[in-house]
Amino acid sequence: MSPLTILRIEKLKTFGNVAGSDDHVTRNRETPNADPTKENVRLIGGEDERALEEIVEEKISTLKHRPRHDAVLCTEMFLSASPEYFRPGDPSLSGQWSDSLMQQWAIASRDWLTENYGSKCVRAELHLDESTPHIHAYIVPVNEKTGRVSHDAMFGGRGGQGRIKLSKLQDSYAAALAPLGIERGVKGSKATHTKVKEYYQAVNSEPLTAVITNNQLAPTPFESASSYVTRIQSDDQFQAINHQLADRKFMEQRLERAEQRARDSEKERQQLEKRVRSLEAQTQQLRDLPLEDVAWELGLHNSQGKWKGHGHIINIDGPKFYDFAPEQQKGGCGAIDLVMHVNNCNLRQAVVWLHERFGELGAIGAAIAKSYQVAAEIIQLEPRDKFTLPVEDKSKWTAVHNYLTQKRGIPENFVEVLHKRRLVYADDQQNAVFVMRNLSEKPLPQGAFLRGTRGENNTFKGYEFGTKRREGWFYFHLGGQLTDPAERLVLCKSPIDTISFAMLEYLVKGDVPLKRTLFLAIDRPNTLPVEQLQHIFNVQVAFDSSELGNADARAIKQLLPQAKKNKCFARDWNQELVNLSQKLQQHNSQQRHQNQEMEL
């Protein structure tokens, strides 16, 4: 039987409905049938971390007309395929599937949503923590012509016209998945889907007993054991038992994990509550002093909303104040500024005065508030230094070139390609300069990684002064067309390892990758540009096999759940490249020697 498409829609008529659906999909509330060890993936809307309710409300607020009280504010769309597609070998293996098939379906579904709904599809979440992969997509049914939200105009309402629109929607999704071998269900079928709650009730109810007690499964007189086993295994009711037992066992394991997670969560919640109470107490103690209290201590009196005395007429507005007295005409912000202004003293004297009146915590809180104010002004006004690459020294390039090709085993033609692209060059200290760029359409240098090459045992490596390690990375693309988006990502620890891994693939396969591949060097997981890379499903982590390399690979897996680790059998990928290059040289040398002998 060919796998079939699955598409369902649900109307969300209130923001409470939207928030409730969001809590379920983002796993903010307990979901008994979800595996907590598996991570879900946001296919659309990953750059916006706000609550779904807030996103939908903002989308609707731009419309000309407010929604009617019974209007559908958001449409939730459920997309999937029957289990035969995801696990063709055995559809009954709940919670298992082919990653490659899943990724092809997810990409095709995401592209279909984008093509049909564009910015109206504000979020799409790929769930991988249940029995079969599926997508929850949220579409705000905006009608630009009327300036209203209209679910019926987009998806159809009740009656014949609604059924026609829904049927066309099913046709459209099926056409998008047809290249994957997934077909549309029978049009006009009366079959209905079982709700999740009803399904789990069915799995844990009586059918098992009813099937087991069925006389058709009993052995017949004089039937051999092998014949009986063959007959039972081919029986549809026996297959039903297998499916139900697999689902029951799977759910029992999930329930056990969920209960343990609940116990751990409760313990963590209690610890967090204790920590929050402690932080709240500290925050209360360390916030700035109320200016009204400071003004009173300074000997001013409140008259008609102004604090007067000692030649001052001060208006207080929250943390700010302004002196309207003819001789003053100036203002400030915070307790320290107010004391300095009224007492005509410096900062140190103002802190001492506050300590005498409000104690140590009061003076410290005022000082912290002052430091925040000064820091904010500096951040806003101080000019930023633009990163400048090290000056190139062309006379040193030959030595750097020889180091990369002879000592590091990198093919000469690829070193020249990188050099022509201005991704590597030599500075006046004979360092190999690997340029680190941002990931924009027109990349700009944000830093440089330096590798010493002068002398026999030069171990120098480091970053050029001013490098922004969270904003720039050494990377290059191979394969596909220049305008193609990257379909594959390879992460390595250093520029030389990144180049070495790419060249290992080239030397082994004898060609550049068919798919557009982004090779990127990243030395710490917390500098990974997740938002710009999370859409790439094929991610390989090519770190070394050291304890640190394995730990960083696990950290990358947390950030990009689709990532898989490549095993390095040498000290690092460059050493593996050197070893392979030496073997190839020996093979070529032996081949030349054999050819010479044959000529003789």
TrEMBL record:
Do you know which NCBIfam families this protein is assigned to?
A: MobV (NF041497)
State any single GO MF term. DNA binding
Pfam families, per this entry? DUF3991 (PF13154), Mob_Pre (PF01076)
Stated family: Belongs to the plasmid mobilization pre family.
* Gene Ontology biological-process entries: DNA recombination
Coiled coil as UniProt keyword: yes
Q: Which residues form the DUF3991 domain?
A: 402-479
Provide the species name.
Answer: Nostoc flagelliforme CCNUN1
Q: What is this protein called?
A: DNA primase
| Coiled-coil residue windows | 241-289, 570-597
Q: Which UniProt keywords apply?
A: Coiled coil, Plasmid
Q: Which domain of life is it from?
A: Bacteria
Keyword match Coiled coil? yes
